[in-house]
Amino acid sequence: MLRVFWAEEGGLPAGDRGLAYGDGLFETIRMQGARGTLVGRHLERMARDAARLGIEVPPAALRGAFCQAAERYGAGPKPAGWVLKLILTRGEGGRGYRAEAGLRPHLLVSASALPPSPDRHGVCVDFSRVPLTVHPMLAGIKSLNRLQQVMAARELDDSLFEVLMLNAQGELVEGTRTNLVVNRDGAWITPPTPSLAVAGVMRQWLLETLRSRGEPVLERALSPDEVLDGRCRGLYLMNSVIGIVPVRQLAGHDLPVEDRLATICDPLETLE
Amino acid sequence: MLRVFWAEEGGLPAGDRGLAYGDGLFETIRMQGARGTLVGRHLERMARDAARLGIEVPPAALRGAFCQAAERYGAGPKPAGWVLKLILTRGEGGRGYRAEAGLRPHLLVSASALPPSPDRHGVCVDFSRVPLTVHPMLAGIKSLNRLQQVMAARELDDSLFEVLMLNAQGELVEGTRTNLVVNRDGAWITPPTPSLAVAGVMRQWLLETLRSRGEPVLERALSPDEVLDGRCRGLYLMNSVIGIVPVRQLAGHDLPVEDRLATICDPLETLE
């Protein structure tokens, strides 16, 4: 069974495999009081990706920990915004990389303040000089192996909201902490799941919402030129904490910012 | 300056970036009492790779922590074998992946028992089904991002000492926890540093020792066929804890095991 740790009571044990090898996963959930954005999708992704890594955690245990955390940090007469972070690790033990079967997973739970809201009229971003490398067995998994994103985020300064990462094929894939979608040639285009470092729950919700509204959605590789050649009708970044934000400038090039996506999808509907 | 934590007194703080993102490095050093194998190389690699990641740690602080640890865990009248592990992280703080400059790095120090010695007459290994993906900016760095090695190590059972990983080009690169060298066509052949997930200090010591003895050493890509086609005179695995061990069987194929390497290099000479 899951062993739950509360961050304000201390960290994980020194021998935890999450620290040693990044042998685990995390979720960050935007909360409003005791309710959260896309909670079901967050917990389902964590359980599904844990299974991909061979970490045995019953989905009901994750749900139980979420409910305790929502009560612990989010109760009160005036619901305020905050961020819940769940770090799930394979636990402690094993011989080096090799884990014994049946280790008891650890869940570290913490609460933090909401980050500053991005400018809803559009943000400025650049290309990262750090290439994105995605391991085929770990694609899409929000694992604790995030060093390349840390290295890319070192390029950020206060004038840049995000940097966008290209893979070795020169395809535009995602930001350090955001997925992306491009509106072009009458369709919404986004890189396919197997190419992603993190397959975000907000991205998945957006794609499903667009499709349910009859909008054409294409999951395919994107070149940077397809954003910069003047035919792009909008570039949007998203994650479940910031929602969906338009990009008004990429690498010094102005991009069109339209209201259309906001009229189709309202991430505020995603509170559960 | 560095903040040192002793594992027996607890783990790192809950907000440590090593746990959150694998934002750090580690070294495991084979110790005999208060002396260790290739200590200078271990500490130099950690300082050099920390600099590559932008983690500011004075080499003298690492050396000081090592000396304290050697004294703390290794003092005593009868020197016995043990393993010292140093985990260096960027510390605590920053906004998500983005770290502020000037964070105070953390060093978690722990001692553990030596692993069982491998059979000096040769070990059995197999190919891993997990491909090896090396980020060009992180090549060779013994970072805390080791999830692909954990996934490959899940293929180990008690009959297998190691599994060998191939990259996307089908080249044989390294084991989960070992580097490799092949003796073939009168030369010692090993995959080049930029292709490696971890550039081991024992590998580097071995290559320098071979070259100093006038042995031909080639750092170039290796195909699995070059080990299996009958012209291979020996395949060796190495790391600084186990030393250098011959492989007598790879994926069910018998390989020649000769004494030649042992007569050229003695890893026991590396105690400092």
Automatic annotation (TrEMBL), chains A, B:
Example GO biological process: 4-aminobenzoate biosynthetic process
Domain of life: Bacteria
UniProt entry tagged with the keyword Lyase: yes
Any one GO molecular-function label of the UniProt entry: 4-amino-4-deoxychorismate lyase activity
Annotated Gene Ontology cellular component terms: cytosol
Keywords: Lyase
Pfam families xrefs: Aminotran_4 (PF01063)
Family label: Belongs to the class-IV pyridoxal-phosphate-dependent aminotransferase family.
PANTHER family linked to this entry: AMINO-ACID AMINOTRANSFERASE (PTHR42743), AMINODEOXYCHORISMATE LYASE (PTHR42743:SF2)
Protein name from the UniProt record: Aminodeoxychorismate lyase
